[in-house]
């Protein structure tokens, strides 16, 4: 999803993401010790391992760059990005639940959602959604996109849909609505595995409702782009389908609901802020 200062998804990218800096100050020279007699030659120092955020960037660059827009990466590529995300923690991106992003300014109103921009190019984007308690990211889609979502901390309710297959569509659909299959409808609590959605499967349309303060690290490949037809569309649930094709939907069986396009809900407010965690080096 994209972010706008006015509260809709598309999001302005914040080029204020932390840049490299070199501190000043004096440097003391220390006399190099000579190796003890009989000792072997000193070993070369190993290069420091890349941080978690940098490893994620490099995995995304290898998996998404060069791929056709809207093309789903191969299974090995999906697993590569997912395995890196599975290991990332809130500490790796410099987040804690007591930060200002997660505070409710007005306890009676709908809390604003904050988006932290880490990186964006034509092939993919990386960002974090910060949700105060009872914060809601309304039902929206991801056209032609493969999306990874990692819940860094907190508990949230997730509901997601995929469009129903042609054979499941009733003869007389509700006017202005389209039938969708419920893919997920439940509670997710960190720590948990990264979820992956695809252009046609995996819950391409979803909504999040924070049960307490939550942070979600998102990777979109490719990102939203109105000019390329990847526009973020919102939906309302217009009606539940009690039966499809004359068959009753029994408990535990597939569930279907009619969705209709809508404007962002009144009171939904999404703002961009500067990411202050470890920076990404784009060599």
Automatic annotation (TrEMBL):
Q: Which domain of life is it from?
A: Eukaryota
**What Enzyme Commission number(s) appear in the record?**
1.13.11.20
- Supply the enzyme class, top level: oxidoreductase
Bias type Low complexity, positions: 38-47
Q: Which SUPFAM superfamilies match?
A: RmlC-like cupins
Q: Which GO terms describe its molecular function?
A: cysteine dioxygenase activity; metal ion binding
Q: This chain belongs to which protein, by name?
A: cysteine dioxygenase
Q: Where is the composition biased (Basic residues)?
A: 27-37
Q: Which family does it belong to?
A: Belongs to the cysteine dioxygenase family.
Family matches, as InterPro entries: PCO/ADO, RmlC-like_jellyroll, RmlC_Cupin_sf
Keywords from the named record = Iron, Metal-binding, Oxidoreductase
User: According to its UniProt record, which reaction does this protein catalyse?
Assistant: L-cysteine + O2 = 3-sulfino-L-alanine + H(+)
Question: Where do the segments described as Disordered lie?
Answer: 1-47
Cofactor names from the entry are:
Fe(2+)
Q: Which Pfam families match?
A: PCO_ADO
What organism does the record attribute this protein to? Urochloa decumbens
Which biological process, per GO, is one annotated for this protein? detection of hypoxia
């Amino acid at each position: 999803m994209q972010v706008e200062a006015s509260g809709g998804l598309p999001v302005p990218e914040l080029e204020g993401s932390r840049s490299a800096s070199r501190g000043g100050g004096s440097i003391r020279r220390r006399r190099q010790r000579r190796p003890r007699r009989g000792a072997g030659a000193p070993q070369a120092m190993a290069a420091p391992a890349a941080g978690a955020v940098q490893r994620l960037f490099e995995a995304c660059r290898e998996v998404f760059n060069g791929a056709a827009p809207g093309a789903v990466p191969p299974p090995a590529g999906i697993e590569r990005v997912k395995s890196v995300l599975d290991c990332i923690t809130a500490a790796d991106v410099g987040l804690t639940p007591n930060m200002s992003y997660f505070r409710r300014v007005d306890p009676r109103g709908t809390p604003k959602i904050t988006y932290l921009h880490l990186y964006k190019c034509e092939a993919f984007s990386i960002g974090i959604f910060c949700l105060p308690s009872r914060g809601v990211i309304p039902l929206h889609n991801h056209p032609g996109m493969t999306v990874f979502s990692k819940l860094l901390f907190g508990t949230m309710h997730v509901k997601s849909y995929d469009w129903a297959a042609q054979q499941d569509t009733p003869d007389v659909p509700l006017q202005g609505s389209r039938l969708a299959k419920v893919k997920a409808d439940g509670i997710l609590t960190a720590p948990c595995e990264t979820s992956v959605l695809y252009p046609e499967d995996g819950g391409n349309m979803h909504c999040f409702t924070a049960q307490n303060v939550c942070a979600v690290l998102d990777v979109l490949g490719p990102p939203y782009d109105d000019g390329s037809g990847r526009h973020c569309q919102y939906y309302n649930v217009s009606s539940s389908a009690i039966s499809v094709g004359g068959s009753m939907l029994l408990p535990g069986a597939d569930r279907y609901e009619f969705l209709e396009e809508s404007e962002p809900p009144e009171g939904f407010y999404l703002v961009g802020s500067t990411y202050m965690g470890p920076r990404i080096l784009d060599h």
